[in-house]
Specification:
Layout lengths: L2 E2 L14 H19 L9 H21 L10 H13 L4 H12 L8 E3 L1 H8 L5 E3 L2 E5 L6 E6 L4 H4 L7 E5 L2 E2 L12 E6 L5 E6 L2 E3 L5 E4 L5 E6 L6 H9 L7 E5 L8 H9 L7 E7 L4 E5 L15 E5 L6 H11 L4 E4 L8 E6 L5 E11 L14 E2 L4 H5 L4 H20 L5
Parallel strand pairs: 12-13, 13-16, 16-17, 17-20
Antiparallel strand pairs: 1-18, 2-19, 3-10, 4-5, 5-6, 6-7, 6-8, 8-9, 11-12, 14-15, 14-19, 18-19
Helix pairs in contact: 2-3, 3-4, 7-8, 8-9
Amino acid sequence: MRATVSARIFSLLLLGLPLSDAAHAYAQVQAQVQAEAAVAAPVAPTRERARQNQRVFNRVWSEVRRSYYDPRLHGVDWDAARVRFRPQALAASDERGLYRVINTMLDLLDDGHAAASPPAAVRRQDAQFARRAVMGLTLMRGETPDDWSVERIRPGSPAEAAGIELGWVLNAVDGQPWGPDVETPEGRPLQLLLTDETGRRREAVLTPRVMEAVEPFSADTSRPGVLVLRVEQFDKGLGPWMGSALEGLPADVDVVLDLRGNPGGRLWEAESVLTCFLPRNQAWATRTGRSGRAVVLRAAGDCGDRRDPSANAVAVLVDQGSRSAAELTPAAIQEARRGIVVGEKTGGSVLIAQETNLPDGGRLTLSRADFVTSGGTRLEKRGVTPDIAAPRSVAQRRAGEDPALEAAIAALRAEGRAAAADRPNGL
């Protein structure tokens, strides 16, 4: 197992019409998709499928009972959950059906980290930063398993060539509702059904193709006097990479840490990022496991060759898609008064989780510890409130505008001018 603070991503749909009109149009499309995907009668699972279903379900149920951070399971009657969901799981005819049942059961815990990923989703996750065949879409799940909105479109990808836009909702691929278990093999055309921001049905055909790996971290020096460090995920090696990016940086260069849309990742890497900015060994949080034993987290990670934290002014960008490590990091910087947080309120999914492999190649993510900041704030279900609110609309994103980044740069420059004015003789 590895300690993580990654989370399932949920978001609101970004619709341009009044909610009632857009929701009605979206519901019509959804109903049509479901009708087209319907079958005459349920398909009974094969004997091997049923046995596999049983092994996976039993492992998930037992792991929650044995290892969940709250021994009271948030008041959920877990034995009753087993009675209710086990027959449904065993009757599932395929991987999608099984994992939908399991995740419906896990939803009883009301914990954004508690989730089971099917094998296809695990393979996609493990190859996220590898050279592979892609559609070029980053999708964000909404309130239901069939509710996915387009959060990002990769430049030069098949999705961009097909004319798909940010904010559209992906309803179906080849007549089936989209899900993380759907495979997108290279060279096979896919028929996509989407709904745009007006509720209008859109169709697109695209063929996944191999593209180079997306870098999990990147540095942008295109703006004078500003270093923007974009972190897609708190992945292995982030701390040393950030230490290297900060090494030798002139004191008058401002640093913007962009964590928007970042689902979290490794706890150690979050600790390493904080070590790059906070005094070494400074306490920044406390985690408490199932046993009730509290462990103080300190800025003692790996910031490469740096022995002292960066003295550069810092701003952190967050939004509704910032989860877990991408919440606890800005919270620690904000609470220590080390920098400013700019953007939108985060999702409030900050329990510390671990991953467990399942018998069929799937993976269970489960919260193993509670988390509070060094000041005693519990961020779960609460999130991080930015110092400067700077929402970014779909229209602004499509136009390449970034009000949050501009607000962060303006605030850092204003702080710099104020600090210069306070120095004797302006020195």
